[in-house]
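anyone seen this seq b4? input:
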Amino acid sequence: MLDVLAEDPEAYPILHGHLASDDRHLLAAVAPLLANHPPAYDRLVELFDHSDDSVRREAMKALGRSEHVRSRILGAFDDPDRWTREAAAEALRAVPEARHHFRRLLADKDKSIRRIAVDVLENDGDPETRRAFRDRLVGEKEPDEELRKRLLDALRGDPESRDLLRERLHHDTAHWVRIHCAGSLSPEPPALAHPFQEQAPIQRALACMGLSALHPSTAGEKEALQSFLHAPARLERDANPDLFELVLAWACIRLTFASPDGELREGRIFGEVEAPIERLSENDRTLVIRVAMDHADLPRERNLRPNHNLIETWRIAKHLVTNTPTSLVLACADVDFEHLVPPPLDPGQVLWGPTFFGFRLSGV
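predicted toks r here
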């Protein structure tokens, strides 16, 4: 019945009269119908302070496009009452002239109000809005996973946001947030690289482990590797460079090996490297081995368990000592290598994810 009256301007005085009611349901129903009836505006403004949140919301919504009361509604963005702030946000969400004011609601303590702010701003494209989005994504400012994903999606393709996207890819604890970061950084499939299993040091170690016949190995090499794995002890590179190289290759295999039970049998090596490798121990920079999938999906999709593998790998690798400690890192992300930049590690330090799993060898 009220909707029918709202279509007839001559009925506005009748609707206006209902604003004197004490019935909160009637007030909430009538208020938005009087958005085009200026004589009702003073009473609608009075309803901004009504005790019922639905009445406040509908009164503000009715006057959201009315410029002469807009500042009053904007002032409610800072109201201590959560329902009043939400009512003000709902009232102005469709008002283009008020859009930039929603940036300050990105930091509201209530998630539903932050969600309205993102609704309003995510397609804005204004540099100041993108800057506000980036600021919200620094550290742990935005605790809600869904809102972090939406903010990241809004920054897709923004050159100034690439470093932030990498930081979130490397450190965000939420699986789907990392997936969104990867998609934003590398919208196309990553460029093909060099299969890690095909690298010469890896093939040599696989032969010593009895897992490959493609590379020759001697009985002495096999025995030396097995003896060390059985009873690991401090091994300096300069003291025995060949065994050091062999154990380091074993560590790489253990870190990247996928099998149904997590053991070094009936499985395969995953991963690829950016450039061919002749000797692992002569590498003077961090060796990044990329597996193009988030670590949370690897156990189910590939039988690869990064945390388990790292525990087993470090149990042996912690005994390797060198004057120039190299870092070995398994990077679990479907992005190009340029976006895989592990943090610098101290000798003997271990990385436990969520994107990088690896370690730096100990120094002499």
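The chain has a mean pLDDT of 91. The first strand starts at residue 194 and ends at 195. kinda curious what u guys think
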